[in-house]
Design a protein that fits this description.
By secondary structure, the protein is α+β, with helices and mostly antiparallel strands. It is built from 2 helices and 9 strands; from the N terminus they run βαββββαββββ. Strands 5, 6, 7, 8 and 9 form a 5-stranded mixed beta sheet that branches. A 4-stranded mixed beta sheet has the order 1-4-3-2, covered by helices on one side.
Length: 130
């Protein structure tokens, strides 16, 4: 029934202007704003062409899981660039991070992952496959 649907994902933020600046200027994603007044929304276009709907929510609570993963070829360079752009990596007690905040996984999962948050507190990652 939904196999051919042009499905898309979405998430909330507490400040649409901050989200537009972060995703558009800091991360460099194409961002479109539409709507008017309290009904304004953002659409992010990812490198794959997928689109993600971002909407303001007065009672926003940050996602406690990773909402977007950005695959990279070189996680060390990606983390350095995030830091250069003023982004601080998250460190979770249940994982062993290196000095840069990167978790080296290996096995059947990704080779390495590092997490950070958007201004609304939603969790994002850069991830390097083997």
């Amino acid at each position: 029934m939904f196999g051919q649907a042009q499905a898309f994902s979405g998430f909330s933020v507490d400040d649409l202007g901050e989200a537009r600046r972060f995703y558009g200027e800091t991360l460099g994603l194409p961002v479109e704003e539409s709507g008017q007044g309290d009904m304004r929304v953002l659409t992010l276009t990812l490198g794959s062409g997928a689109r993600v709907f971002v909407y303001p929510k007065e009672t926003h609570a940050p996602a406690t899981f990773t909402i977007l993963n950005f695959p990279v070829d070189d996680i060390v360079s990606a983390v350095a660039e995030l830091e250069r752009r003023g982004i601080t990596l998250e460190r979770y007690a249940e994982f062993d991070h290196d000095e840069k905040g990167i978790v080296r996984v290996g096995g059947d999962g990704p080779a390495a992952i590092a997490w950070f948050t958007d201004p609304a507190g939603n969790v994002l990652s850069v991830i390097q496959e083997d």
